[in-house]
Amino acid sequence: MATRKRRPGEKHGDLKAALLQAAGKRLEQDGPEKLSLRAVARLAGVSQTAPYNHFANREGLLAALAAQGFERLATNQAAAAQANDDPRIALECLGYEYTRFARGHPKLYRLMFGAGVGGEGWHDDELVTASKSRSFAPLRDVICRLLPEPVSPEQVDNGAMVCWAFVHGLSAMLIDGTLADRVESDDALAELSRQSIAIILDGVT
Amino acid sequence: MATRKRRPGEKHGDLKAALLQAAGKRLEQDGPEKLSLRAVARLAGVSQTAPYNHFANREGLLAALAAQGFERLATNQAAAAQANDDPRIALECLGYEYTRFARGHPKLYRLMFGAGVGGEGWHDDELVTASKSRSFAPLRDVICRLLPEPVSPEQVDNGAMVCWAFVHGLSAMLIDGTLADRVESDDALAELSRQSIAIILDGVT
DNA sequence: CCTTTATATTAACAGTGAACATATTCTTTA
DNA sequence: TAAAGAATATGTTCACTGTTAATATAAAGG
Questions:
Q1: Cβ-Cβ contacts under 8 Å for B181 (sequence gap 6 or more)
Q2: Closest among B144, B106, B111 to B128, alpha carbons compared
Q3: pTM of the entire structure?
Q4: Which residue from A96, A168, B133, B147 could staple onto A193, CB 3.0 to 4.6 Å apart?
Q5: Is residue B14 packed enough to be buried (19+ CB in 10 Å), middle (13-18) or exposed (0-12)?
Q6: What percent of chain B has pLDDT over 70?
Q7: Do B176 and A113 touch (CB under 8 A)?
Q8: What is the pLDDT of residues A170-191, one digit of tens each?
Q9: DSSP tag of A205
Q10: In 3D, which of A90, A172, A107, A164 has the Cα closest to residue A132?
C-alpha cells in the first residue's frame, strides 16, 4: 500500500470537505434534526447519493461534523491556554472561549454534546471521542498548573471535571435561552465567566 | 371522579394520556429524533392521524412530553426541598434528585434541555417554559434560605444560577458518557453530588 | 327528530434515508 | 501505449415519515 496523491475516479476537487462545509451551513440554519443528506448534496452541487461515498450514512456525516467541531474547540482552548502565563487568568480565558464557542455555534455545540443521533451520545464513535478528549486536555493542563503541590492525577481530574461541568452547564443555559436575558453582550458574558471561574476556584483550591 | 365525562364523538377513553404514555415509552427507547407520530399512534392502537386531534403536530407532542417531564422534575425537587429543614442538606438533596432524574430518564432530559425540535429550545412554547420555571423555584427558595441576610433578589438569582448551571452540566456529562466511568453506582453519584455542592457553596457564601 | 361538534378513520401527497445496479473517470499496471 | 482495476457519481427504487383533505361515527343540545 503506497500513499497516493489523488484517489482514482475523483471528479470533484475535494467533495468531502465541500460536503462538510455545506452540512455546517445547513446545520447552523436548520438544526441537526432537519439536516437532510439530499439538501447537503444539493447545496454542494452533486447527486443525492454522492455523500455515501464519503460517509457511511447520515449519522456518519453528523459524527464527522461533531468531530470537526471538537477539533476547532480544542485548538481554541489550546490557544487560549497558551496565551496566558498566569494559570488563573488562563483558566478564565478557557471558560470564556468555551462559552464563546457555544454561543457562536449553538447548533453545532448541541450536536457535539447532545444526543448525537442514536440517543446514546457519541461514545461509540472513536473519532468523536478522540477529538473530545483532545479538547479536554488544555483544561486539565491548566488545572494541574494551578493546584498547590503535591497534586494527584485524581485531584486534577476532579478539579477539571468540576470546571468543565460548570462551564458546560452555563453554555447550555446560554444557548437554550434560560440565561439569554441576563447575558446580552459579549462583555457581560466575559464578566460572568470570570466571576464564575473565581467562585469555582475558591472552592477547589 | 375517575372517569371524566365523555366528550361528543369520543371513542377512546383518554387518548391524549395514552398517546403521551406511548410516546414516553418510545422516547426512552429510540430517542427524540427517531420518535415518529405514526409509531406512537400504532403503539396506542389508533390510526396515524388520530394524534392530530390532541396535538398540533409532532413538535406539539414533543413539547407536551417535555412539559410533563418538567412537571415531574418540579414535584421531585419540591419534595426533596421540603423533606429537609437544614437548607444546606436540602440543597444537596436538590442536586442529587436532579442528577438522579437526568440519569433515570436520559432521553427525556435531553428532550427537555436540548434543542427541542426547531433548534431554538422551547423558549417559544409557553407551556414548557411555565413548567420549567416551576422546576426552578425550589432551588431559588433554598438558596434564599441559605444565604446570609440581607439578601437581594439578584444575589439569590446568581447563586441559584451557578448551582443550576453546575448540576445541569454534571447531568449532561453523566448522560453522554463523559462521566459514566467515574460514577457507576447511585451511591457514588450521591457522594459526587454532595461534594460538588459543598464546593459551590463554599464559593458562593 | 335533526343539527352541531368533537373525534377518529381512510386516502393521498410530498419529502426523507437508504439500497441497488450502472455508468463515468482516473490511476496503475502490463 | 493500451488494457485493467478501483474509486466515484448517478438514476431508480423502496419503505417510512409528517401532514392535509375528505369522510364517517357517536354523543350533546335544540
A1: none
A2: B111
A3: 0.87
A4: A96
A5: middle
A6: 86
A7: yes
A8: 898 888 877 766 677 777 777 7
A9: -
A10: A164
The angle at the Cα of A200, spanning A197 to A205, to the nearest 5 degrees, equals 115
Domains and CATH numbers, chain A: 12-55 (1.10.10), 65-204 (1.10.357.10)
Cβ-defined contact of A168 to B169 (cutoff 8 Å) = yes
Tens-digit pLDDT profile for residues B84-107: 999 888 998 999 999 999 999 999
- Distance of alpha carbon B89 from the chain centroid: 21
The total number of residues shown for chain A amounts to 205
Instruction: Collect all residues of chain A within an 8 Å Cβ-Cβ radius of residue B172.
Output: 113, 165, 168-169, 172
pLDDT tens-digit readout, B153-168? 877 887 888 888 889 9
Which residues in chain B have their CB less than 8 angstroms from residue A202's CB? 202-203
- Which residues of chain B between 53 and 92 are close to nucleic strand C, CB under 7 A? 53-54
User: What are A126's three cell numbers?
Assistant: 472513536
Average pLDDT over residues A118-134: 74
At residue B202 the predicted structure's pLDDT band, cuts being 50, 70 and 90, is low
Work out the minimum CA distance from B173 to partner chain A, whole angstroms. Answer: 7
Q: Are B143 and B91 in contact (CB under 8 A)?
A: yes
Interatomic CA distance for residues A46 and A35, integer angstroms: 16
With CB atoms and an 8 Å threshold, state whether B119 touches A34: yes
- For residue B167, the chain A residues in CB contact (below 8 A) are 169
> What count of CB pairs under 8 Å joins A to B?
128
Measured at the CA of B33, the angle between CA A121 and CA B107, to 5 degrees, comes to: 55
For residue A123, the distance in angstroms to the closest alpha carbon of chain B comes to: 6
Whether nucleic acid strand C comes within 7 Å of the CB of B11, the answer is: yes
Cα–Cα distance list, B125 to A171, B62, B67, B122 (Å): 21, 11, 9, 5
- Report chain D positions within 7 A of protein CB atoms: 5-12, 16-22, 24-28
Residue B192 confidence (pLDDT) above 80 = no
Inter-residue contact B169 to A176 (CB < 8 Å): no
